[in-house]
Design brief:
Elements lengths: L11 H11 L3 E4 L7 H6 L14 E6 L13 E4 L2 H4 L4 E3 L7 E3 L9 H38 L3 E2 L7 E5 L5 H10 L5 E4 L2 E6 L8 H16 L13
Parallel strand pairs: 1-2
Antiparallel strand pairs: 2-3, 4-5, 6-7, 7-9, 8-9
Helix pairs in contact: 4-6, 5-6
The structure holds pyridoxal-5'-phosphate (PLP).
């Protein structure tokens, strides 16, 4: 919720019902969406149920270092109940050092990243996240409308900060290459071949520039001036 390539949220309600029926543990990977989706919904966005409001969801991951705007090194995994969380605790007495209990499999960890994340979250608060995510939504909506005007096809109906789009007549990778020449280091999808953007609040102020460079890149590719092509490879 959502997936990284297209920014689309899976049908969690249906998966939840299936998990309940089959007595399975449903974990929602909300790594990239967990700290944006609730605030987009508060801002009036159309976000389908994806979290513990779906009865079958037993755990979720949500990354603080993505749309939580915190530094890397601290993140969150949430459980529906204390009983379920107890499975994450490492608790071992079968050695000569006495009982060893840690909250996760990882042992000693620095608290600095956790403290920094706590500070960022308290600094931003609900209002701060809503404001930042409004900017992300504005950027996404401007990109969606702009690329559609240029003849690209947005993949699915993204609701958060990721948008991917393809073109039925030109090679999106060639367009990516032209954009790179102008300093746009963005991403790609491979199925289908498409351009991929993960938007942050700052991008609201540069969507106009991006779209005019995209129009230029498209024109160049249509005219046969392809330039550098990107390999379809992720690392
Ligand atoms: C849906 C999803 N899950 C997991 C991850 C992995 O995140 P990380 O590499 O920060 O652990 C990502 C990264 O973007 C993601 O989008």
């Amino acid at each position: 919720a959502p997936c990284f390539p297209y920014g689309l949220i899976d049908p969690i309600e249906k998966l939840g019902a299936l998990a309940e029926k089959k007595k399975l543990w449903l974990h929602v990977d909300a790594c990239v969406g967990g700290y944006i989706a609730p605030f987009v919904r508060m801002n009036g966005g159309d976000v389908p149920p994806f979290d513990f409001e779906v009865p079958g969801v037993l755990s979720m991951s949500a990354d603080l270092h993505k749309y939580g705007y915190c530094a890397k090194g601290a993140s969150t995994v949430l459980f529906r109940s204390e009983e379920l969380r107890s499975h994450m605790i490492f608790d071992c007495a079968d050695w000569p050092g006495g009982r060893m209990v840690t909250p996760t499999l990882a042992g000693t960890r620095p608290g600095g990243a956790i403290a920094a994340a706590w500070a960022v979250m308290n600094f931003l608060g609900e209002e701060g996240y809503r404001a930042k995510h409004r900017q992300v939504t504005n950027a996404r909506e401007a990109v969606e409308a702009g690329v559609a005007r240029l003849g690209f096809r947005v993949l699915g109906r993204p609701q958060l900060g990721i948008v991917s789009f393809t073109h039925d007549e030109v090679d999106p990778f060639a367009v990516w290459g032209k954009l790179f020449e102008r300093g746009w280091f963005t991403s790609l999808t491979t199925e289908p071949k498409g351009l991929h953007l993960m938007l942050s609040p700052f991008h609201e102020s540069v969507t106009g520039t991006y779209l005019s460079d995209l129009e230029w890149a498209l024109g160049e590719v249509k005219a046969g001036n392809e330039g550098k092509k990107r390999e379809a490879r992720y690392s």
